[in-house]
Every structure is written in C-alpha cells, then in structure tokens.
C-alpha cells in the first residue's frame, strides 16, 4: 500500500508537527534567560527556518517543480500573500513577547481562540452558516476565555494579571484568524513550500529590522558570542519552524484539513506539559477547565465545518490538496489551510 494512503502515518506526521511546535514556549523562554530579546528570537527562528525551507524549494525545483514569481500573481494573489506574510510577522512577535510576560499555558490557550474567531468571521462574511454547533462552540470558547483569564492568581509570571500579555496573545489569535481567512482563497497558485518560505522570510526581515531599531546590532549578534544560545536557536529554527511546517503540510495531504486541524490541538497540551516540567509553571483548576472548553470549542468547529480552514499554527501556508489523497468532502474550495507562525 502506498504510504500516502495510510491514514495512521498521516496522523502521526501531524501529531509530530504539533508536538514540535509545542516546544516553542520553553525554547523561547530559555533564550530570553540567556539575554536574547523576544523580537530577536523571532528573527533568528524565522530566518533559520526560511533558509532551511529554501533548501526544500531547491530540492523541489530539481525534481521538476516550478518557481512562482511575485509578478506572475494577479492582484488578488499578491494582496493575499502580502497580508498573510504580514499577519505571520505580527503573530510571531505578539506571541513570543507574550511568552515572556505570562505563563506559556495561558498564552497558548488565548491563542487557540482563533478557530472561534474564524468561525464567527466566516458567518459574518457569509461564507459559512452560523448553525447551532457553531453558536455552542462560540459560547464555549468565550466562557473558557473568561475562566482562563480570571480563574487563577498566577496569571502573570510575576503574580497578578498581566493585561498586556493577555492582549498580545489575543492579538496573535486575531492575526492567525486573518491569516486563515485570507489564505482560504488567496495565492493558491503558489506552491506550499514557496509560500511558506516567503512568510517565514518576511517574519525574519520585519523582526530583524525591529530588533536593530530597538537594540542596535548587539540585539541580533548576541548568539555569535554564546554557542549554547546559537545551538538553541538553530534547534528552534529547524525543529520548531522548518521541519514541523513540512511535516504538517505532508500530513494534511494524507488525512485532510479537518482531522489535521483537530490533531494540531496537541500543540497547547505539549506546551503546557513542557512548561510545567521545565519551568515549574502551573495553572489553576478553573483555568484548566477553561482551557479544555476552548479546545473543545475548536474541535466542535472543525467537525461541524469540514470545508473550513484547518486549525494550523502561523507560518505554514495552505497546501495544494491532491484529490486522490484527500476525501472528497474535505477537498472542496473551502479546504484551504492557514498556517501558524509560531
């Protein structure tokens, strides 16, 4: 049997990608502890990921792939890819700054409100009907968000509620939602690895510019003086950017966007577990119940709308689903997948 027709292998591929993305909270916090700023971390991670993705693009071209240039896109395609790249950059910076201000678990749970935002926006735009399942999911997500924010005394790293950290996490969710909505119909002629490389590259350039403006050259050159930090960034760029992005895009071709989206909910679970193990971070029981409500809402939305964009973390673009690999009900025009730039 061809590997592409083994659903279990596709599910394991997506689950592996989700687990690798789940390491980002601990990796970023460790880098901050060595003196690297959040924006510089974004620049290094995205830059290394973009370089690794460039290698994937070259490999694809040598196998007969085609290079889609900016000029070959129509106006709508350029606008969509431009907005997606910008949202990837804003998502990354907001999320990684939030990781430094509030517990990783809280940041991830706030971020995973984005499926509910996508569902609500799709209904407002007339793309999907706001049926009973979606209404229940939206209410569940809202209740869960309230529980996460007010359900425990350790909402901020220093004690008390860090409003800016929560706001940054929610802004990351908003950026991801816009990313998914734009990616639903935009830049479909761009091969997935090329779109992914563009989005990671834009994130790296924007973050590097901001790091230089805020802290000068020293803000970006610190890893060259600290081999351990450089190794950590290399690991993050490869194993929490380029590799999981590739694995996710490969997995979605095997199992479709709906199942892949649900499996991506492993990411916050891994992130919470790693934060507890390595950073001694814990959340209260009410916050845990709120988190389960948010993740449950995401599952309801995914199962209720097989044509919706899959729940995917920011900087992996929509894959070109192959009809012979994806069930017919999941390969319709609405099956485009957004990405997550974390």
Helical content (DSSP H or I, runs of 4+): 55-70%
Strand content bin: under 5%
Class from secondary-structure proportions: mainly alpha
Q: Which segments are poorly predicted (pLDDT under 50) over 5 or more consecutive residues?
A: 154-158, 306-339
Principal-axes geometry comes out as: globular
- Specify Rg, calculated over alpha carbons: 19 Å
How would you explain this protein's 3D organization?
With 342 residues, the chain is an all-alpha fold. It has one domain (14-34, 67-200, 238-330). Helices cover 69% and strands 0% of the residues. The protein contains 13 helices and no strands. The protein has helices spanning 7-21, 24-33, 38-62, 75-99, 104-111, 114-124, 132-150, 163-183, 192-215, 218-225, 227-263, 266-278, 285-304. α1 crosses α11 (227-263). It is globular.
Summarize the structure.
By secondary structure, the protein is mostly helical. It has helices at about 5-20, 25-35, 40-60, 75-100, 105-110, 115-125, 130-150, 165-185, 190-215, 220-225, 225-265, 265-280, 285-305.
Descriptive labels:
13 helices, 342 residues, mainly alpha, single chain, 69% helix
Explain the layout of strands and helices.
Layout: H1 7-21, H2 24-33, H3 38-62, H4 75-99, H5 104-111, H6 114-124, H7 132-150, H8 163-183, H9 192-215, H10 218-225, H11 227-263, H12 266-278, H13 285-304
Helix pairs in contact: 1-11, 1-12, 2-11, 3-4, 3-9, 3-11, 4-8, 4-9, 5-8, 5-12, 6-7, 6-8, 6-13, 7-13, 10-11, 11-13
